[in-house]
Amino acid sequence: MAHADSPVISFVDALWPVRGASRLVRAALLAAxxxxxxxxxxxxQVPFYPVPxxxxxxVVLLIGMAFGARLGIATVALYLAEGAVGLPVFAGTPExxxxxxxxxxxxxxxxxGFVLAAAIAGWIVERRRDAAGLALAVVAGSIAIYAPxxxxxxxxxxxxxxxxxxxxxxxxxxxxxxxxxxALALGAAAMxxxxxxx
Length: 198
Known about the structure:
By secondary structure, the protein is mainly α. It has a single domain (11-196), classed as Arp2/3 complex 21 kDa subunit ARPC3 (Orthogonal Bundle). The chain has helices spanning 11-15, 21-43, 56-67, 69-84, 99-103, 108-127, 131-157, 159-166, 171-196.
């Protein structure tokens, strides 16, 4: 657990400290980089069983944990804004549609979940950098993606079908990605402890 006198900060604040106007420049650069990584992660499909997986949930969790809640939200919001204006940043675009029409389709709830996951994972890691806190951030962030995603899909196809289509096939892949996110966060936490001397 973070020491009582440890500052409540994100990994980025600890590893790349800046002040004043430089902070805004850093935030803009990181948000642009994060949205680009989200786009790339949506387009790459990794063969897996029972369905191929993208790396989006991994990147969302890492953005939240690395950037903190506020910048994590801003980064995912930038990504969603790019999609809303018609840029083909989402998985399956432009083949499955673009813009707001895509965003209110079957995967709309998961897109909302990305914002919630970045916020929740970021908030937790800003306060807890021990293994238990990092694990909680990964689990809570993952739930924050799936809960609105499945509920949104259920409003279209019913709960049973939503679980069958929007949850079960992805569990093993997301379990693997959650483990990777946790391992990377542990490494970042060790770097932060060395940096802060705690």
